[in-house]
Amino acid sequence: MIRVAVVGLGKMGLSHHAMINAHPGVKVAAVCDATGYVLDVLNKYTGVQTYTDFDAMLREVELDAIIIATPSGMHARMVKAALEKNLHVFCEKPFCLDTRDGEELTRLAEQKGLVNQVGYHYRFVGAFQEVKRLLELNAIGEVTHVLAEAYGPVVLKPKGSSWRTQRSEGGGCLYDYAAHPLNLVNWYLGAPHGVGGSVLNSVFSKDTDDEVFGTLYYDNGVSAQLSVNWSDESFRKMSTKITIFGKNGRIAADRQECQVYLRDGAQLPEGYQSGWNVRYTTDLTAPVWFYLRGEEYSAQLDYFVQCIAQKRAADNVNSFQSAMQTDRVISMMIADAERGATLRADDTAAMVAAQPKKKKSGLQFWR
Amino acid sequence: MDRLLFGDNQFFGVNHMSEEKARAQQMRFQDINAIIDVLDNAYDEGIQSFMCTTHDRIALVCDHMRKDPARYKDFKFLPCMPYAHKYANAVTEDGILGALKRFMPDEGFLNAALRGGMSLAKKDIEGIVTLLVDAEMKMFAGLNTPVIFLQNVVVDLLLGLGFKEAFRIFADHVKKRYNAEPGFITMNLPMLLDALEEQGIDNPIVCANINKIGFRMSGGFEAYEAALRNRRFRAIAMSVFASGAIPPKEAIEWVCEQPNIESIVFGASSRGNIRNTNELVQRHWPATSAAAAA
Known about the structure:
The complex is a heterodimer. By secondary structure, chain A is an alpha/beta fold. Chain A has 2 domains: 128 residues, Rossmann fold (3-Layer(aba) Sandwich); 181 residues, 2-Layer Sandwich (Dihydrodipicolinate Reductase, domain 2). Chain A has an 8-stranded mixed sheet with strand order 8-9-10-7-11-12-13-14. In chain A, α5 packs antiparallel against α10 and α7 crosses α10. The radius of gyration of chain A is 23 Å and the shape is globular. The mean pLDDT of chain A is 94. Chain B has a single domain, classed as TIM Barrel (Alpha-Beta Barrel), CATH 3.20.20. Chain B is globular, with a radius of gyration of 19 Å. The C terminus of chain B is likely disordered.
């Protein structure tokens, strides 16, 4: 039995607690949260040992691993304390608000050979895994562009303050929503060498962003564009979509399905044909031991447990190292957005310099 | 229970296969009359039980049915509560207390506040659970609600946490106050049956995915088969078509061969599809009560 503690009983923490508690290979040894009320109710009705003091819990309870689902600003300190206690760590996303903390923690986890994972659950969605598989098979040939989108109804009017409404605490659309499609882009294309055109705009929030747009630059002209808005009521819940353009076809995927168009002459993966192919979640999703709110949430926790059981610390699809790529892009986008437009309308000199040279030989009808 | 129950996913843009289809359905059923038309179709085809979420818009359907008791005298609502998004949104917008106030039942603020407030203070979950059930049941006043379900997100959250006493509290309250049968929706049937048995809830109504390809049957296909053979409970099969992954005839044929299934819940948006499903069920599962009224 792997002994686990869950820290932070918000929306994510409570559902992690329920799923991991149902796992046959795990014993939840303690839970920790700042509000005593929820803890007292849980203790009264389920008997689980509870703590309001994180450090006391680490001192007093025998643990193998920890699930950290506290507000993002608290991740770095808690992850460090847990690693120093030689615990395997699953941490909610985003990993660290300060990339220097993230780098230090990544080194520490690797040094100690501890399993380290961040909760980017989309990497466990069947349709997004199929995209990864198709890219590795080179099904659509050389990729030229990725469009990564996420929309949903989170902030629909100006409202009171909590950590989720402060960018300084890791709140806002960029950290909360955009991190997911960014993380998928990192998975498919790797780390970009630069970003540009970043826009972090408030729709309703006073202290943070509600919509995020930007471009990620890669070598050889490859780029990705991000379009994210969490103030969009036309979506029932968060909807993330990835569209990938390649020289031999196109892939569009969301949580439910993976639509693939392959041109004649493309390298056809087994079971795929030229033209349109659609794979649904019912084909692509592996069963889980316990279902609460989507297979991917269960699957990522089981993966964490299996990595511990099989001592696979160095090999994790959502390692701190990989989550750091996303943290870095987030930091780049914040810095880029502060600069504003890179070319202003009154900078005529730059525009004239970039004008194509006019040919004197008349109009061109073709290129 | 009727053998064929009508579900409501199609009315609220829930489609496990395609977001595009889900949006098209949301557009089509934006007008409450479009929902009522389909319900009328189902009712006229002999499907008299409507298993529905306690979504705000269902209140409009309830109003419609109340206005014409003669036409809808055999119409049964099987409410599934809570509509989780409603609470999540309300709590984000108004905080926990504001949300509770918004969902107070008609018996009066003071009474409810006492029951809720005292329970909150004593960390006594019974008062809170019963208060929330009453709030959700408000819209069904005067209508026939023979079975009242707890939704799978809540059932499975409580199940995972080990908060099993809540099932007992819910069951007792539903029986006592509404003279209805408690029902439980789950994605983890084998595990839930153990928990219900532990709580002394005998022969419970449990609604779970039961389909030929094992889609969202957590605990495993074999464990479901064994549960249907050996456990004492009243099974309702949902997602029998696995969101369209199994052709209708094949899906119904298979589910009708399974032992111990009392009802099938299905969704459809057209009279043709309702009739086809009804006919398939009658053919493969003779003596359906749904057939009698058609």
